[in-house]
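Issue 218. Parser rejects a valid record. Input:
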Amino acid sequence: MSTKCHIDIETFGTVDLKKTGSYKYSEHADTDLLVCCYGFNDGPINLWIPEGIDSMALPFEVYEALYDLQAADPNIGEITIKDVCPLDLGEHIANGHTCAAWNAEFERVLLNGRISKLYAVPPSNIRQWECIAAKAAVHALPRALGNACNVMDTVHKKVEDGRQHMLALSRPRNKSGVARWTPADSPNRFMALYKYCVNDVLAERAMDDALPDLQPSEQEIYFLDQEINQRGIQLDTHRAIAVRV
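Output the parser choked on:
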């Protein structure tokens, strides 16, 4: 059986993702990885937490809470806290093996962007990725993971408890600067974020298991759509400016 890795990431950024799109967001100077959770086939979910800049270093109480969580939750596998992509994840991507995510464009583009440069994440290509949201769309299911899980009554449901913490940690603390919440000043929020990310991988994997794979022709349409988005369109900016003037 070939190995598939289900991946979910949570990020910080100072630009509005909805306005810029994932490509510009992925290359912005402030965009950073907060946590990456991933699981191979039906195995436990591993956590990778880069500490990045000094202010994002984990205090002892977060270390302690993480390992208490690992001991108590059989769904949680290895916990890696370092500023380099974990070896198992890096080798999986570098060897061209299959990665899967809900709205996979976000994970692919972000991990190929500034995050790749910061944390030595090997580049992946479009054809390595399966989008579980695309599978759901083919079957006329909701595009929101939580709603789709509820409709399908999957083994693992999306847990919304940590969503407000995810939204807070993914953006600046105020509109006047780029100040971030840090694990030192908000340990409970970061623990809620880590649990939220683990659960998202469990929920998306349950949806993947519940749905048949895309037909080859459907999969090719998905790849084409992603290639068009990645390539973009050619624009003569000088002529556009002249016309506008």
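Fixed in the parser; the record now loads. The chain has a mean pLDDT of 92.
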